[in-house]
Specification:
Amino acid/polyamine transporter I, 17 helices, two-stranded antiparallel sheet, about 500 residues
Length: about 500
């Protein structure tokens, strides 16, 4: 059935369905890349309890995903956190939440595309080209531009592309995990294999700062599922399907992450993985050869397609948040432009793309460490706007919380608990990063851990831009917080 044409100045309605939204939510998290990026540092922090930390990280994600679902039912807006926090907590807080979402896209798009290029070259045996920094940087920029072009071409085109990529990477991950576990039990592993144990699911085994750092890595690994909700105005059954897609994305990710973490730790052992912590996603390149031998391209392809898919889907929330902000006059009106023929936010998409390319090139030229520090800073921004969303849900529905156990738990206690966990994690992480000797990066800038400096710089830039925009046009800041209509959620 052909998609209904978009009204003038509107996104294309009913462009995708629930399964498309689910695929986009999964691909936005980039499961294979996320696992490759965090498994080494995670094992270095918590040892064999890595699967347990991935399980514990799921809890706040599920609670916040529930908040996203119920807020979307009341206000299906492509700006998600920006729109909801503005209406629940006020324009200033909403603007900062929207800025955080936009900056997450800027921070990570270049890194994702760089990994897609690197692993893609390794998968086809072009190892020498993968080590050519200048060529890799050029191909990364070209790839970002290509993925942005697909986003502008149309949401249906993007969804079809994402459906293929999510099936491919999940299939590759399943093959890798199955072979790794088989070789552990068959005794044919080439590393220090360890038989899996149910005790690995205990996230408190390492305790203390190690758990805090591990949970922060877990938050990064799960981040991205809300891209399904940024497409709410373009999804069939917009009040329900995007929220359900977000929740189911976290559940599928839980199963994938715990299964692969068990397989990797069991096959490689903690000493090997901890020793590869500084290699980050490259640990999967070496593991692919150890586990699969000549078939190592299977895992390399999984990481490449994962990063490729996420490069595209990460542009979606940033661009549509900018669109929503412009519609409310929180950003200049040019960001609200929608391509009349394709029904996509072309201007905001290209602005996000351009900013992300500049950030990638500059940071990449500074050092590889700086690129990794950008990802750690990203986790702080994620925890911030997720926590804001949970609080906004409880405030928005505050008049419904005492109507029964369902509304109290699902609309109030659950989102607030998820927010409290993320705020605790945020505060602990900032404290750790303030001391470079405790930071997740060995790099120190201005006497602080580099990730904290990056996060503070972006936060400061956001405040300055907000004040400049408010001075130029204060219309948005005259909005007053409100609550959801009584009929917005019929049954919690």
């Amino acid at each position: 059935m052909p998609t209904a044409p978009a009204a003038a100045g509107a996104l294309t309605p009913d462009a995708i369905g629930f399964l498309d939204a689910l695929a986009i939510g999964l691909n936005a998290t980039s499961p294979a890349y996320s696992l490759a990026a965090v498994i080494g540092p995670l094992v270095a922090l918590v040892g064999v309890h890595a699967p347990g930390v991935m399980l514990a990280s799921f809890v706040p994600m599920l609670l916040i995903a529930s908040a996203f679902h119920f807020l979307n039912r009341a206000d299906p807006d492509c700006g998600t956190t920006f729109s909801w926090v503005t209406r629940a907590l006020g324009p200033t807080t909403g603007w900062l939440g929207g800025w955080a979402i936009a900056m997450t896209g800027v921070l990570v798009v270049g890194s994702l595309a760089d990994v897609a290029v690197g692993f893609g070259l390794l998968a086809v045996g072009a190892d020498g080209l993968a080590d050519n920094t200048l060529l890799r940087e050029a191909l990364t920029v070209v790839l970002i531009l290509l993925m942005s072009w697909l986003c502008v071409r149309g949401t249906e085109v993007s969804a079809r592309f994402q459906n293929v990529l999510v099936l491919l990477q999940v299939l590759c991950l399943v093959v890798f995990a199955a072979v790794a576990v088989y070789r552990v039990y068959a005794g044919t592993g080439s590393l220090d294999a360890v038989r899996p144990s149910a005790g690995w699911l205990d996230p408190f085994g390492a305790g203390g700062p190690a758990l805090t750092g591990g949970l922060l890595l877990g938050v990064f690994a799960y981040w991205g599922w809300e891209s399904a909700l940024n497409l709410t105005e373009e999804t069939k059954d917009s009040a329900n399907a995007p929220g359900r897609a977000g929740i189911w994305s976290t559940v599928v990710l839980l199963a994938t992450y715990v299964a692969v973490a068990f397989a990797v730790v069991a096959y490689a052992g903690t000493a090997y993985l901890a020793g590869q912590a500084d290699a980050e996603e490259d640990v999967f390149a070496s593991l692919a050869r150890e586990v699969l031998g000549g078939w190592d391209w299977i895992l390399l392809l999984a990481v490449a397609t994962s990063a490729l898919a996420s490069t595209q889907t990460t542009i979606i929330p940033a661009s549509r948040t900018a669109l929503s902000m412009a519609r409310r006059r929180a950003l200049p009106g040019a960001f609200a432009h929608i391509d009349a023929r394709r029904g996509t936010p072309s201007t905001s998409t290209w602005w996000v793309t351009g900013t992300a390319i500049v950030w990638y090139v500059v940071i990449h030229r500074i050092s590889e460490n700086a690129l990794a520090d950008s990802l750690t800073a990203l986790s702080l921004l994620i925890a911030f706007y997720y926590a804001l969303t949970g609080i906004a849900c409880a405030v928005w529905y505050r008049r419904r919380l005492l109507r029964g156990p369902g509304p109290f738990l699902l609309l109030g206690a659950g989102p607030l608990l998820g927010s409290a966990m993320l705020i605790w994690l945020l505060v602990e992480s900032v404290g750790d990063m303030a001391d470079p000797s405790n930071a997740s990066s060995s790099t120190a800038w201005f006497g602080l851990g580099a990730p904290l400096v990056i996060a503070l710089f972006l936060a400061g830039a956001g405040v300055v831009l907000m004040l400049l925009r408010r001075a130029a046009s204060g219309a948005f800041w005259r909005e007053r917080p409100g609550v959801a209509p009584e009929a917005s959620v019929r049954r919690a």
